[in-house]
Amino acid sequence: MDVFDEDSDIVTYAREQDALQIGAAKLDFIHYIAWRNKFSGVIISFKGSSNYEGLKETLVEKFGTGKKDDYNDNLGWYGVDTTIILEYNAETRRGSLMFKSNKIRVEEEAYRKEKAKEGAAKGF
Q1: Domain residue spans in the chain?
Q2: How far apart are CA 44 and CA 6, in angstroms?
Protein backbone atom coordinates (compact mmCIF):
# COMPACT_ATOMS: atom_id res chain seq x y z
CA MET A 1 0.00 0.00 0.00
CA ASP A 2 1.13 3.50 -0.80
CA VAL A 3 0.37 6.61 1.22
CA PHE A 4 -2.05 8.74 -0.76
CA ASP A 5 -2.56 11.56 1.76
CA GLU A 6 -1.64 12.45 5.34
CA ASP A 7 -3.55 14.86 7.55
CA SER A 8 -2.73 14.98 11.25
CA ASP A 9 -4.11 11.75 12.74
CA ILE A 10 -5.54 10.39 9.47
CA VAL A 11 -3.53 8.63 6.77
CA THR A 12 -5.11 7.59 3.48
CA TYR A 13 -3.65 4.69 1.51
CA ALA A 14 -4.18 3.34 -2.00
CA ARG A 15 -3.20 0.07 -3.67
CA GLU A 16 -2.27 -0.02 -7.34
CA GLN A 17 -3.40 -3.63 -7.74
CA ASP A 18 -7.01 -3.04 -6.63
CA ALA A 19 -9.62 -4.13 -9.17
CA LEU A 20 -11.70 -0.99 -9.68
CA GLN A 21 -14.97 -2.83 -10.04
CA ILE A 22 -17.64 -4.19 -7.69
CA GLY A 23 -20.38 -6.17 -9.40
CA ALA A 24 -21.42 -4.20 -12.48
CA ALA A 25 -20.07 -0.91 -11.08
CA LYS A 26 -16.84 0.64 -12.28
CA LEU A 27 -14.96 2.57 -9.60
CA ASP A 28 -12.69 5.62 -9.77
CA PHE A 29 -10.61 4.74 -6.72
CA ILE A 30 -10.49 2.82 -3.45
CA HIS A 31 -8.84 4.47 -0.45
CA TYR A 32 -8.07 2.84 2.87
CA ILE A 33 -8.21 5.06 5.94
CA ALA A 34 -6.19 4.76 9.14
CA TRP A 35 -6.83 6.91 12.18
CA ARG A 36 -3.90 7.08 14.61
CA ASN A 37 -2.39 3.98 12.96
CA LYS A 38 -5.62 1.96 13.29
CA PHE A 39 -7.52 0.80 10.23
CA SER A 40 -10.81 2.70 10.35
CA GLY A 41 -12.47 2.35 6.97
CA VAL A 42 -12.62 2.38 3.20
CA ILE A 43 -13.82 5.09 0.83
CA ILE A 44 -14.73 4.17 -2.73
CA SER A 45 -15.46 6.81 -5.37
CA PHE A 46 -17.46 6.39 -8.57
CA LYS A 47 -19.29 8.47 -11.13
CA GLY A 48 -22.50 7.97 -13.06
CA SER A 49 -25.96 6.72 -12.20
CA SER A 50 -25.35 3.28 -13.75
CA ASN A 51 -22.44 2.71 -11.36
CA TYR A 52 -24.57 3.94 -8.45
CA GLU A 53 -27.33 1.49 -9.41
CA GLY A 54 -24.79 -1.32 -9.84
CA LEU A 55 -23.32 -0.72 -6.38
CA LYS A 56 -26.77 -0.42 -4.82
CA GLU A 57 -27.89 -3.73 -6.35
CA THR A 58 -24.72 -5.48 -5.14
CA LEU A 59 -25.05 -4.04 -1.62
CA VAL A 60 -28.74 -4.99 -1.39
CA GLU A 61 -27.89 -8.51 -2.54
CA LYS A 62 -25.11 -8.82 0.06
CA PHE A 63 -26.53 -6.90 3.05
CA GLY A 64 -30.28 -6.48 2.49
CA THR A 65 -32.38 -3.42 1.72
CA GLY A 66 -30.56 -0.81 3.81
CA LYS A 67 -32.04 2.31 5.38
CA LYS A 68 -32.86 5.32 3.21
CA ASP A 69 -31.76 8.71 4.53
CA ASP A 70 -34.66 11.04 5.39
CA TYR A 71 -33.15 13.98 3.51
CA ASN A 72 -31.76 12.44 0.30
CA ASP A 73 -31.35 9.15 -1.53
CA ASN A 74 -28.36 7.95 0.49
CA LEU A 75 -28.57 4.42 1.79
CA GLY A 76 -27.06 3.05 4.98
CA TRP A 77 -26.44 -0.35 6.52
CA TYR A 78 -25.77 -0.22 10.24
CA GLY A 79 -24.12 -3.29 11.68
CA VAL A 80 -22.58 -4.03 15.05
CA ASP A 81 -19.01 -3.66 13.76
CA THR A 82 -19.36 -1.62 10.58
CA THR A 83 -21.47 1.16 9.10
CA ILE A 84 -21.84 1.28 5.31
CA ILE A 85 -23.05 4.43 3.54
CA LEU A 86 -23.79 4.72 -0.18
CA GLU A 87 -24.09 8.32 -1.40
CA TYR A 88 -24.89 9.70 -4.83
CA ASN A 89 -25.40 13.27 -6.08
CA ALA A 90 -27.41 13.29 -9.31
CA GLU A 91 -26.37 16.87 -10.11
CA THR A 92 -22.63 16.20 -10.04
CA ARG A 93 -23.05 12.55 -11.08
CA ARG A 94 -20.51 11.62 -8.36
CA GLY A 95 -20.88 9.17 -5.52
CA SER A 96 -19.08 7.33 -2.78
CA LEU A 97 -19.35 4.14 -0.82
CA MET A 98 -17.95 4.20 2.71
CA PHE A 99 -17.25 1.39 5.12
CA LYS A 100 -16.50 2.68 8.63
CA SER A 101 -15.46 0.80 11.76
CA ASN A 102 -17.93 1.59 14.54
CA LYS A 103 -15.31 0.86 17.22
CA ILE A 104 -12.82 3.30 15.73
CA ARG A 105 -15.58 5.89 15.14
CA VAL A 106 -16.39 5.81 18.88
CA GLU A 107 -12.68 6.16 19.72
CA GLU A 108 -12.35 9.13 17.31
CA GLU A 109 -15.38 10.88 18.82
CA ALA A 110 -14.06 10.42 22.37
CA TYR A 111 -10.62 11.68 21.32
CA ARG A 112 -12.09 14.80 19.65
CA LYS A 113 -14.26 15.54 22.70
CA GLU A 114 -11.24 15.23 24.99
CA LYS A 115 -9.18 17.54 22.76
CA ALA A 116 -12.07 20.05 22.68
CA LYS A 117 -12.30 19.93 26.47
CA GLU A 118 -8.54 20.50 26.75
CA GLY A 119 -8.76 23.39 24.32
CA ALA A 120 -11.67 24.97 26.17
CA ALA A 121 -9.82 24.67 29.50
CA LYS A 122 -6.77 26.48 28.07
CA GLY A 123 -8.87 29.17 26.42
CA PHE A 124 -8.86 30.31 22.84
Answers
A1: 2-122
A2: 17
pLDDT digits (tens, 9 = 90+) for 3-21: 888 888 999 999 999 999 9
pTM (2 decimals)? 0.88
2-122 placed in CATH 2.30.30: no
Beta bridge partners of residue 87, listed in sequence order? 96
Between residues 73 and 34, which one has the greater pLDDT? 34
Q: What is the pLDDT of residue 122?
A: 85
The dihedrals phi and psi of 105, each to the nearest 5 degrees, come to: -60, -45
